[in-house]
Amino acid sequence: MPSLWSAAAWPVDAPFFVVLAAGVLYALGGRRRGPGHRDPSERRWRSLAFYGGLLTIVVALDTPLDPLAEKLLSAHMTQHLLLLMVAPALIVISAPWLRLWQPLPLGFRRTVAKSVARGRWAAPLRWLGRTLSRPLPAWIFFNGVLIIWHLPALYDATLSSQAVHDLEHATFFAGGLLFWLQVIDSPPVRARLSYGLRAVYLTGATLVSWVLAIVLALASGPFYSAYTNLAHRPGGLSALADQQIAGGIMWVPGSIPFTIAFIWAVYHWLEPETEASYLRRNGHRRLPAAGHH
Predict the structure, then answer these.
(1) pTM, to two decimals
(2) How far apart are CA 67 and CA 2, in angstroms?
(3) How far apart are CA 288 and CA 127, in angstroms?
(4) In 3D, which of 73, 230, 242, 219 has the Cα closest to residue 158?
(5) Largest CA distance in the chain
(6) Taking 50 as the threshold, does the pLDDT of residue 293 lie above it?
(7) Residue 288 in this model has a pLDDT that exceeds 90
(8) Which among 24, 124, 173, 292 would be 20 to 30 A from 229, CA to CA?
(9) How far apart are CA 130 and CA 122, in angstroms?
(10) What confidence tier does 292 reach under pLDDT thresholds 50, 70, 90?
(11) Model confidence over 140-180: pLDDT tens digits?
(12) Cis-peptide into 188, omega within 30 deg
């Protein structure tokens, strides 16, 4: 384990530059006021959410947490939760899609948009996008990557191959974006589920993560040879104790984003809809006389 203040403890890899580029584009896009961001207070809290999401990615991948994850399963689990549940949720809340797109040259935007929308080469991408943007496939993908990457063979592979490790992190983040887009409105993208179904959606994902956490925490022996075979672990932890802590991290802190979103969804589900909120969501159609939930 490198010293906290050594260069090795603060890796600056490709994700850092992607985050930096996203931050610059977002800042430049902020000079224009899009139709969904006219309220100054809304712009501020969306900006805070976006930069908070970027900061979360940096904490996960470009701080001493990253090299520590090679020695401790519990640190690796913390990385996973940040990339799967925290950073994507904040990015979705910030709704940065148009703002990130606006600073690019108009000709480039038109060419790319036309190519992706009509090009034959992009047909598989369009199909994949339509499929994974639906609630059920997004839920399966989110929970699938969580389970599959925690299978011992694949988990050990991430620690022996940087390419596999990068793929793991990329699929975690992508799965998180797809999942939270089904739960949180992110203009111009609107969640397809009603608030009641969003609560059910979140409950199902919570149960999947709990099952995996229980398996890790209550196992009689360690699962991952990459950690078991280490001659020394920080703090003198045994491989089994480290695994139990990792399970606890997934079980308790990992449930916090789900719980917050669940309470929010139930609150909106039970709250009577006002005329103003109904008109915002449905254009100029009037709220039915009997009320609408």
Answers:
(1) 0.86
(2) 8
(3) 37
(4) 73
(5) 71
(6) no
(7) no
(8) 173
(9) 12
(10) very low
(11) 999 999 999 999 999 999 999 999 999 999 999 999 999 99
(12) yes
Say if residue 281's pLDDT is above 80.
no
Q: What angle do CA 62, 6, 16 make, to 5 degrees?
A: 20
Instruction: Find where tokens 């994974």 sit.
Output: 132
Single out the residue of 125, 173, 181, 122 nearest to residue 149, CA to CA: 173
Domain range list for the chain: 8-282
Which string of b and e fits 95-106 if b means at least 16 CB within 10 Å?
bbbebbebbeee
> What's the pLDDT at 5?
53
SS3 state of residue 32: coil
Please answer whether residues 33 and 99 qualify as being in contact, where contact means their C-beta atoms are separated by less than 8 angstroms. no
Distance CA 270, CA 266 (A): 6
pLDDT at 9: 65
Give the integer Cα–Cα distance in Å for 17 and 239.
Answer: 34
